Amino acid sequence: MYKIGVIGEKDAVLGFKSLGFSVFPVENREQAVETLIKLAEENYAVIYITEQTAAKITDRINQYRERRFPAVIPIPGIQGSLGIGMQGVKKCVEKAVGADILFNE
After folding, report:
1. Which letter, b or e, does each residue of 71-97 get, where b requires 16 or more Cβ atoms within 10 Å of its Cβ?
2. Which is nearest to 6 in space by CA: 45, 62, 64?
3. What are the tens digits of pLDDT across the range 55-102?
4. What residues make up the domain containing 19?
């Protein structure tokens, strides 16, 4: 069975525990990078990461972009969305169909 993890600020990720996800609160960039690498090595299939945390480790997240697992998916944190998740969706759609059919920019 595949595992799902959530990385981010404590207040933003604790609610996911009630859904059965593994929750990993982090306080800084180093902890976020260590946790992301650890979860990837432990064969997590999906890793949700708050956009505020993802913004700090974009270079590390991009290392997993071409791999099948884990799927690293930015989600809005408690401060709201930074648009990182939508930018990821936009890039994936452009790569898949060769044009921006969602946002028409």
Report:
1. ebbbbbbeeeebebbeebebeeeeeee
2. 45
3. 999 999 989 888 889 999 999 988 888 887 777 777 777 777 787 777
4. 1-77
What SS3 state is found at 87? helix
Identify whether the C-beta of residue 57 lies closer than 8 Å to the C-beta of residue 29: yes
Contact 74, 85 (CB under 8 A): yes
Verdict on whether the full-model pTM lies above 0.85: no
Tell me which DSSP letter residue 100 carries. -
Domain annotation covers residue 105: no
Residues 6+ apart with CB under 8 A from 104: none
- 3-class secondary structure, 5: strand
How many separate domains does the chain show? 1
Domain holding 34: CATH number? 3.40.50.10580
Q: Residues 6 or more apart from 100 whose CB is under 8 A from it?
A: 90, 93, 94
